[in-house]
């Protein structure tokens, strides 16, 4: 900027009270942020919907100070832990209390980000005066989008994503593995049990060169070589008159994992209706429907050796040396999936499928039971 000589400049900063006027939802009421004395963190629905994820809990990561959001494991649809100001108990649960549109729920993992109007995290200890001991670890209050009067409007949102294994370990091929087994057996002598094992599984040591022409089973590619296409779509319709308003949102998402046969599919339906019965009486109806389908063994069921087996099994014949599958009927895909299932033979192989259906309905009446009285002062007659 060029210097101004001989002139007096007056610079005035414009006031911006937008943050102070932001409305925060508490236990029994809503207040402006400027009137709050406790510690409350808020995230608007616009910021949450801008994150291309399928869960509102994941969208909270890094949005509020003092709130930690972590996943239990890397499986699609894995449980998400939210900690408000860290854990305070060693033996008891450190989960906060979740309130969604007045309902107490177990978690917010299956709430679509596009349905959320705001998320308020109440971190102050004084909030236990409203929610009791359950609010000792904090309270996460989720408010979904409400019905508004006006012309019927339809909106559509969608996003696509893909995932892949970021880094693979460099393992031996069939020829290198056979040569390694030969050298290991030779160090123990030609009459040792190791030498007998080599001849039984790899043949005559003079025929090692034939392994250069044999295929190599890369179990990392077989088990974790998926490059899935994940998607999430949302359709919202809303509108109505001054006396009757409604909004309906349908969200469908599919999140597949890089491990063969893993994934989660969700369908969410959220309906909000507000009917003004009288001037002082309004009926709110808010049914919610959630359908979830998990595929695969899941991270909790794989075990500590499930993924390690991908690295230690032979590139020459995989699981066939254990006798679980007849070599004449062996298929690399089935053998790879058998690794994940911890060598449990299930023929035909069937993915574990679990379904969770949740239906919530809230009837909320706002009104007054007292009649309005008007007192008019009149002069006394003499």
Q: Can you offer a commentary on this structure?
A:
With 382 residues, the chain is α+β, with helices and mostly antiparallel strands. The chain has a domain at 23-144: TonB-dependent receptor, plug domain (Ferric Hydroxamate Uptake Protein, Chain A, domain 1). The chain has helices at residues 45-49, 56-59, 128-131, 174-186, 193-202, 219-224, 299-302, 308-312, 332-340, and strands at residues 23-25, 30-32, 40-44, 67-71, 80-84, 97-100, 103-105, 116-122, 139-144, 150-162, 229-240, 244-256, 263-278, 281-285, 288-295, 353-360, 363-366. Strands 10, 11, 12, 13, 14, 15, 16 and 17 form an 8-stranded antiparallel sheet that branches. Strands 3-8-9-6-7 form a 5-stranded mixed sheet. Strand 11 (229-240) and strand 12 form a beta hairpin. Helix 4 (174-186) runs antiparallel to helix 5 (193-202). Residues 319-357 and 368-382 have low confidence and may be disordered. One of its GO terms (cellular component) is cell outer membrane. Belongs to the TonB-dependent receptor family. It is found in: Cell outer membrane.
Tell me the strand percentage band: 25-35%
Poorly predicted runs are: 319-357, 368-382
Largest sheet: 8 strands, antiparallel
Number of strands: 17
CATH fold group of the domain at 23-144: Ferric Hydroxamate Uptake Protein, Chain A, domain 1
- Mean pLDDT equals 72
Helix content: 10-25%
The CATH homologous superfamily name of the domain at 23-144 equals TonB-dependent receptor, plug domain
Element-level helix/strand string: EEEHHEEEEEHEEHHHEEEEEHHHEE
Multimeric state: single chain
- How far apart lie the N and C ends? 84 Å
Outline:
elongated
- Provide a count of the helices: 9
Q: What CATH architecture of the domain at 23-144 would you give?
A: Beta Complex
Given helix and strand content, the structural type is alpha+beta
Radius of gyration: 31 Å
Assign the CATH class of the domain at 23-144: Mainly Beta
